[in-house]
Design brief:
globular; 40% helix; homotetramer
Chain lengths: 239, 239, 239, 239
């Protein structure tokens, strides 16, 4: 497979995630934050408050404590960091938690609906979707974070009613690819709801192998290409 | 928070507003105008007639009297300046009045509908939306302006039936951020109308705190990022 | 009003029309043609067959006889030139006839519907819309052209069922501005049909003044800005 | 007709196909593959696994055996190459087989619907559309390929339920033009389904001549323009 062609640090890969998703419209102007658990004690690398995803650079990212205190970094972080903390604590495998208000997911969120498993790539979320259908306001303290983690459960793709989306991955690469896929699933579902045509979900017996395929060999193909094209266009993301 | 990194004059900030909103599609080719009340006597800084929002520069802006006479500036202004004058007179806190025909707001305008408060950012318009459901033709004199100001009342986000939108802010920064949010709200609402799915408006008890959050600490984050990216791409806007 | 700042020949203005409309998506890949009546004997300046609207230059345009024979120019013209000839003959004031398959007009064409007069700019087509609801195949000879001109009548904005659109103007500037407006009207109407919400057409008593306003003082504001921005980006169009 | 102006090898033309279609959104990130039968024994030129269509160069393409073994080339190919092999074997005239998950075709695929023949260019698919309405999982071996070829039959435009699209042409040029047209047809049909307005399909007596016109003289006009514009912007595609 064509290689990425460059060694990237965690910070650089996380900066790339921000720009790749912004390029897909997976953001609402300056909203959204991503956390990467970098340590078993709950330390996270996260987005700086006030830098749009379109303009994040590696050096903008902040290292924060499990309670959201900035340990390292030039900027503050969002007070809504607690949207992430409970999930990281409850699920050690959930190393990367992406949150934003991408258009099509937000549209489903206004209707309180989940995306459907109607095309192949969607199978990567088979059995791993959740609708948090109670809007409790912003997630601004640890208790709210615990409540949210409980509502999210084992899901990797989450619609937060009247709010937006959470996408979870075991790595930065996986979280990026899943996020890109999640919003496309939401767009397909929203457009099918509009048509009120019956949709054809993929049969359960086919889902497991597709889920595995999309969680393994497709991942590098996605990430390498997305990053190669990003770096050709916006090399300053690595700074 | 990452700073803007440059000192801007009022004219420069107003020129940025035009280009940022044009970049979002908040315009119908050469239509639309913005006024900024710069003095208690009703003097306004405003858009030049015949310059598209996409190409406005700081030096293009005109200073006009409360009756729309050009006091300073190279160009004429739109005869529809009276769409703004009555509002400025009736509401001293409404320093900035933005008018155009952005697509999604105009779509709701053809249906005579208001956007709904179905996602967090929309709360910045909680209790501050108005539908002017009577189309009286163009607003070409002071009397029409007074009539319109009365119909607008205390609202900050307005749908003008069969016409377009008005968005009002206390500052250029606020009017920009609200305008960007308003058209996205209209798009979400129009798409939900189409789906005829029940939508979930945010409960009244959560709205006040969200409204405050979006009216305060989110504002600089929006403006600084939007202007930084604009200046990197179109520095001539400041001329 | 900010001037265009450059003198353009007829050929250069017609080349600009092609590129401005292509930039708005008023084309289906290489389809479409425009004619400008340059003489009372029916001689026309027209688009070259095989040059996409996105890449037309002034020197690509062809001078053709009333029967579509190329009098001057490097390229052939479309055999569907007869779509234009009957209209020019029947209506001497219809100096410019634009034909293509822009997406939203074509969508209405598949439904056999006309756009509605639901927002201000649409009034420029008040009393001047026609649906040609009989699909007769391609317009490949003079007789078919006469039949079509009869079906078009006095209209300036035409939906050709199962085919596309015709927009007519007295000048290149007017035909450009009307074309841009026509496709936006079609998009608004199609989206309102989808919502099946009742729409609010502009009342007859307001239409005449709006129609006049959009046919006069708005025209230069549209054209000058559209051409200034085009020339800044694609100056080779004038060659 | 304006010429292409450059001689291209098969590899270069196939690389152009990838980039032209990616530019139209006829791809889902890194998904999709194209095969060109280059020999009667079943040898094919095909897309490299792991290179997005947006970044393919001529030197990336792989020569593979009828069983998908790479004979020449730097990269692996997709295990889903068998989606192509059965079709090439069953239909010698089907020299080029394009597969991807373009948005609008995929939307119809989730509904199990075919695009309609409601506008002129769609006639190039008259009598040549097929819906494969049984989802059998990925096409990963020769038997699955034979089953699929049987389901596709003589069609040139195919919706694969819950999956995506196949478009077939006798040449690289034809497959490109048909693919571009196919997704537009799907978009028109999906939008008309949403409106639930009756649509007007083109009458059978007009289809044959339109089909012929679009399969002959329109082809070079499409290809030459699309490639000229691609090469002006991304000349590295030829490397």
């Amino acid at each position: 497979m064509p290689p990425l062609g460059v060694e990237l640090t965690d910070r650089q890969r996380l900066a790339c995630l921000h720009r790749i998703l912004a390029g897909l419209g997976f953001n609402e102007n300056m909203a959204g934050h991503v956390t990467v658990a970098v340590d078993d004690d709950g330390t996270m690398l996260t987005s700086p408050w006030g830098r749009w995803w379109d303009e994040v650079r590696a050096s903008d990212l902040c290292l924060v404590s499990p309670d959201g205190d900035v340990l390292e970094g030039e900027w503050d972080v969002s007070p809504a960091i607690f949207l992430h903390t409970g999930i990281h604590r409850a699920r050690p495998e959930a190393r990367v938690v992406v949150h934003n208000h991408p258009y099509h997911a937000t549209l489903l969120a206004t209707m309180g609906r989940l995306p459907e498993i109607t095309h192949q790539a969607a199978c990567m979320f088979d059995g791993a979707l959740a609708l948090v259908d109670e809007y409790q306001g912003q997630v601004l303290d640890a208790d709210a974070g615990v409540w949210l983690a409980d509502a999210v459960g084992d899901a990797d793709g989450v619609i937060l009613q009247s709010h937006g989306a959470i996408v979870i991955g075991a790595s930065i690469e996986e979280a990026t690819y899943r996020s890109a896929t999640f919003d496309r699933m939401c767009r397909l579902t929203a457009d099918a709801i509009v048509a009120r045509a019956p949709t054809h979900e993929i049969a359960p017996e086919h889902r497991a192998s597709l889920r595995d395929a999309f969680r393994t060999h497709a991942l590098d193909a996605y990430w390498n290409g997305a990053v190669r094209m990003l770096l050709a266009d916006q090399p300053e993301v690595l700074q």
